[in-house]
Amino acid sequence: MMQDSGTEAKSNGSAIQNGPSSSNHLLECSSLREGRSNGETPAVDVGAADLTHIQQQQQQAIQVARQLLLQQQQQQQQQQQQVSGLKSPKRNDKQPALQQQQVATQQLAFQQQLLQMQQLQHQHLLTLQRQGLLTIQPGQPALPLQPLAQGMIPTELQQLWKEVTNAHTAEETTGNNHSSLDLTTTCVSSSVPSKTSLLMNPHASTNGQLPVHTPKRESLSHEEPPHSHPLYGHGVCKWPGCEAVCEDFPSFLKHLNNEHALDDRSTAQCRVQMQVVQQLELQLAKDKERLQAMMTHLHVKSTEPKAAPQPLNLVSSVTLSKSTSEASPQSLPHTPTTPTTPITPVTQGPSVITTTSMHTVGPIRRRYSDKYNVPISSADIAQNQEFYKNAEVRPPFTYASLIRQAILESPEKQLTLNEIYNWFTRMFAYFRRNAATWKNAVRHNLSLHKCFVRVENVKGAVWTVDEVEFQKRRPQKISGNPSLIKNMQSSHAYCTPLNAALQASMAENSIPLYTTASMGNPTLGNLANAIREELNGVMEHTNSNESDSSPGRSPMQAMHPVHVKEEPLDPEEAEGPLSLVTTANHSPDFDHDRDYEDEPVNEDME
DNA sequence: GCTCTTGTAAACATTT
DNA sequence: AAAATGTTTACAAGAG
Predict the structure, then answer these.
(1) Of A268, A321, A371, A437, which sits 20 to 30 A from A285 (CA to CA)?
(2) Which residue ranges have biased composition labelled Polar residues (predicted)?
(3) pLDDT classification of A387: cutoffs 50, 70, 90
(4) Which chain B positions come under 7 Å from a protein C-beta?
(5) Closest nucleotide to A442 by C1' from CA
């Protein structure tokens, strides 16, 4: 309901505390100082108490991320168990040979797919480097893209898989003839009991889920408290992308056996989940590094003479704290791939904006030529981000870009209108005034642009971004290798959804995200999510013999026959929007936004 | 000057 | 009934 997030945000500031994902927490961390700084000394004045606070918040965030990882691992293990067929003996008994054959075929296909994805990512990375958007120093910490972008060979994937599962690969890999395919083998045919995993996972012994890898699983499952099943919670099946409502645990088990038995889809989902876990771990490592760098940086800064943050280089201004640990081009859509996206020229306009000139009220007609789209310097990124949070300077970005950014920053890639409002007010001091004006503009833009898709939810409606549509608005330079993409499109039946997701994700990445520290690596996160969502949703519909995705029908539409913008399907749209978002699972915990309109001043007075 | 894009305002309908 | 949300139209301005 539209009241939901709004009233929650207005009446209860504690909504920020219970975000389900690390990103929410970290996001709050990233904006921690916002509430402390006044408009004049927003960025640098960090006292010891503040620092301690930040540290605590970061630690909490890491803790949450860790838990998230554990959950992911548990989920993954559950899926493995499912895929291994231990819970569906009927199917196993019926056609074990056939299944093995299928699995083997699928392994090959998926391996192929993974390699292609990695190549594509690598290509994309190289392109970014060439464009000067990425600068990789020899001694620099690994880029977020690297794990995939480096084109991991199967053995590397296997190594990752080992690290993720921490245990139950040793026996399996040794017993496997084709070691390069172990990634899938371990996932699909894990019939060997794993004892080490019990040691590795502190949660395993408590919820009894790790024994799923043992033949004793069935007996152990009786000992499980009904609600401790990692794939079951709040009466909903937690299988990625499922969310089927199961009234009680037995019905859930029934559902699990019926809907998530060993089949192509489950197998693929399991593998994707593996990737997700891997990426999350990498993200966690990254965020740890970032935290360290942040603390180091702040310690240094706090001893330096204060200087008012000046967005001398607004090009990099709206990028959140990524500067300390990596050079990934995390900024608002200002890259050569979005040539006409407005941008504040470095040498034009309010090159130096002081707090006295900040109150730019009233209509400002500015368009920024892409010729000012210079490579992004990551030097004062964090400062400028703080700057916009605290100074009432109109951000040099279009409403459409901002809305898109708000949506893409959200974990679910979907936001209610009110959440979009909140993002605006949270990120830009400018939007804490004249609410009627810019809110109207936001609504206007949401309705006007085809790239914004309204998706009806159980609780109301959320807005998502149709990345393909967004890209259509501004012709982009090809950042990937078209032939490679083309090549991918003809490789396998599964390639269709995967490629679509990958391409969309890369298209998105070609517009570097104005990401939060929490997202750490939106690239990989989006990619993983995209692939997972695609697998979850599209495979149900395209797992047939169709080697090409049916045009004009987006995965999301296929997944959720919900109301989207009702427009006559003009031929131009025949290729169909590709939406990478999940719908209808908008978590209430996600409503962490605060409504500044109710407390615009208190924000700074706290 | 034309076209396109964007911002702003406003009217109106629908939903909550 | 009021507020929020969503759609649509109109107009102005900047930029190519």
Answers:
(1) A268
(2) 1-25, 194-209, 541-552
(3) confident
(4) 5-11, 15-16
(5) B7
A459 within 8 A of A4, measured Cβ to Cβ: yes
Radius of gyration of chain A (CA): 24
C15 C1' to A408 CA distance, Å? 28
Section A298-320 average pLDDT = 38
Binning chain A into helix, strand and coil, the percentages to the nearest 5 are 55, 5, 40
Bases of chain C below 7 A from a protein C-beta are 4-10, 12-16
| CA atoms of A296 and A294, how far apart (whole Å) | 5
**A488 vs A364: which has the higher pLDDT:** A364
User: A466 and A451 in contact (C-beta within 8 Å)?
Assistant: yes
Q: Check: pTM over 0.85? Answer yes or no.
A: no
pLDDT of residue A127: 41
A3/C2 CA-to-C1' distance in Å: 13
pLDDT surpassing 50 at residue A410: yes
> Count of alpha carbons within 13 Å of A46, Cβ hemisphere only?
24
Tens digits of residue pLDDT in A506-536: 333 333 333 333 333 333 333 333 333 333 3
User: For residue A411, is pLDDT > 80?
Assistant: yes
Diameter over CA atoms, chain A: 77
Which run of H or of E encompasses A422? helix A417-427
- Three-state SS at A233: strand
Question: Which residue pairs from A555-559 have beta carbons closer than 8 angstroms and sit at least 24 positions apart in sequence?
Answer: A555/A497, A555/A500, A555/A579, A556/A453, A556/A455, A556/A464, A556/A581, A556/A583, A559/A583
